[in-house]
Amino acid sequence: MSDKAPLLERGEAHIKEWCLLNDIHPPVVVEHWQGRCDFGVCAYYRNGQISIWPNMCAAIGRTGRQWSYPGYTVDRTPFGVLAHELGHHVDHAHGPRGGELSHLWRPQDPEPLTGYCPNDNEWFAELFRLYVTNPDLLLHVRPVIWRLMVDKWKYSELRDWRQVLAGADRQIKAAENKIRRAA
Ligand SMILES: [Zn+2]
């Protein structure tokens, strides 16, 4: 059993809960435990369906440049990847050009959240991921975007950001720095 399995399971439960709360029909999640995606990514969204290759997603990052952690600003674990793909679902993205809210909202606070931002759709999906997985952290690092999102959707993660990251001392320290810079 891969260590990605529990992260995927938690992620699926989390996005389902979020969709239920917001009266949104959840995307279908198709898991691929063998092989790799033809597009060289670990997941993609298309027509109401998320296809995910959990073993190509990141593990929890404890050293070096590996920063992924569920609910942190960087989260390429299966947990974060599912929330990111849900972002394309609510943005009604169809390929890189699609997306409704992404193009509308980006001019209001254009900075990318992470290094992964090839276009407006991905700008949106990364910020949306944090809204779904750790809304209190999004509030502290990107209050303008948080306001746009909270006016549109409820959130199911009600803990404060430190509790969400409990045990991830490295990420907590880095988050404190990000919050200081945002203030
Ligand atoms: Zn994406």
β content, as a range?
5-15%
Strand order of the largest sheet: 1-3-2
Number of helical elements = 8
Cα gyration radius (Å): 15 Å
Query: Helices and strands: which structural class?
Result: mainly alpha
What are the secondary-structure elements, in order, as H or E? Answer: HEEEHHHHHHH
Largest sheet: 3 strands, mixed
How would you state the average pLDDT, rounded? 94
As a percent range, the share of helical residues equals 40-55%
- Which geometry do the CA atoms define? globular
N-end to C-end Cα span: 43 Å
What hetero molecules are bound to the protein chains? zinc ion
Number of strands: 3
User: Which spans of ≥5 residues are poorly predicted at pLDDT below 50?
Assistant: none
Description:
45% of the residues lie in helices and 7% in strands. With 183 residues, it is mainly alpha-helical. Strand 2 (43-46) and strand 3 (49-52) form a beta hairpin. The N and C termini lie far apart (43 Å). Bound molecules: zinc ion. Residues 84, 88, 122, 125 line the site of zinc ion.
